Amino acid sequence: MTGFLEAIKAVLFGIVEGITEWLPISSTGHLILLDKFVTLNVSDQFKEMFNVVIQLGAILAVVVLYFKKLNPFDKGKTEKYKTATWHLWLTVIIAVLPSAVIGLLLDDWFDAHFYNPPTVAAMLIIYGVAFILLERRQANKTPTIKSTYSVSMKTAALIGCFQVLAIIPGTSRSGATILGAMLLGMSRTSAAEFSFFLAIPTMFGASALKLVKYIVKAEAAMTGTEFMVLIIGFVVAFAVSLVAIRFLMDFVKRNTFTSFGYYRIVLGALVILYFIIKTVAAPAAPVA
After folding, report:
1. CA-CA distance, 75 to 19, in Å (whole number)?
2. Residue pLDDT, tens place only, 93-134
């Protein structure tokens, strides 16, 4: 019965990851919050690794959906198209470098100081407001970059600097990169796509780093239940991501990101309210 219950929990985590990884609402933030209500019966070390590694399932969905566009060896592509694809990969790698460097240097420090609900709530609200203000600013402006193939190396590097902000839980990797890309002149659809492509090397690297740290630090081998939880979360995240990516691309063709901004603000406010109520309702410590 215990194994079945943990499997159901893993499905829930996979669904949340698959949806929130691509929408600009913070997957890590939602996983931290979900953990407060649906706690996996696993070690703390495994849980930290699990929240990152299941993102690989979500990343595979991008590879599947955009394989043709991202494949420079596709025989159906003209030489010009193949060259453009190589250029796209170059800009993706350039954009990944800032977060790769900062992540390697400060990953543990940020986890220790910011991996908590109050930080998530604050970042949800701050970037929610940022998206609303961004859409108001962009209302009467025509994007100068309408294709991911047209991203310059300078623009890619600047987008990469925005992605660094996502090291703080609650920010949203996709949210930070989309916001930055749009500020730099990209259309909503091209900004969303470029964010998807950045996720491939970024999350592969982050997942590998967390997995290595788990193997090195783990005091015991992964249990059978933990292995099952990891596989289920991974597979569900992949399946749900296939739907979430299609939804977002269809949505941004006809709508702005304003609704996501309001969602972030409301969720952040609810998180703050929850912890205020929890603190007030907590029994007072006995007087010595």
Report:
1. 33
2. 999 999 888 877 887 788 777 878 888 899 999 999 999 999
Look at residue 286 and tell me if it is in a domain: no
Rounding to the nearest 10 degrees, give the CA dihedral for residues 249, 21, 102, 219.
-160
Between CA 10 and CA 227 the distance in angstroms is 11
Number of domains in the chain: 1
Residue 287 within any structural domain of the chain:
no
Quote the tokens at residue 83.
């060259």
Domain extent at residue 170: 2-277
Distance CA(166)–CA(174), nearest Å, equals: 8
Tell me how crowded residue 60 is: count the other CB atoms within 10 A of its CB.
Answer: 18
Helix intervals (H) in the chain: 2-20, 27-37, 44-53, 55-65, 67-70, 79-114, 117-138, 153-164, 173-183, 188-217, 224-252, 258-281
pLDDT digits (tens, 9 = 90+) for 207-248: 887 778 777 777 667 888 889 999 999 999 999 999 999 999
Q: Is residue 288 part of a domain?
A: no
Residue 196 falls inside a structural domain:
yes
Question: What distances in angstroms separate CA 209 from CA 93, 205, 206, one per listed residue?
Answer: 17, 6, 5
**Residue of 110, 91, 270, 103 lying closest to 198 (CA atoms):** 91
33 and 117 in contact (C-beta within 8 Å)?
Answer: yes
CA gyration radius for the chain?
Answer: 20
pTM: 0.86
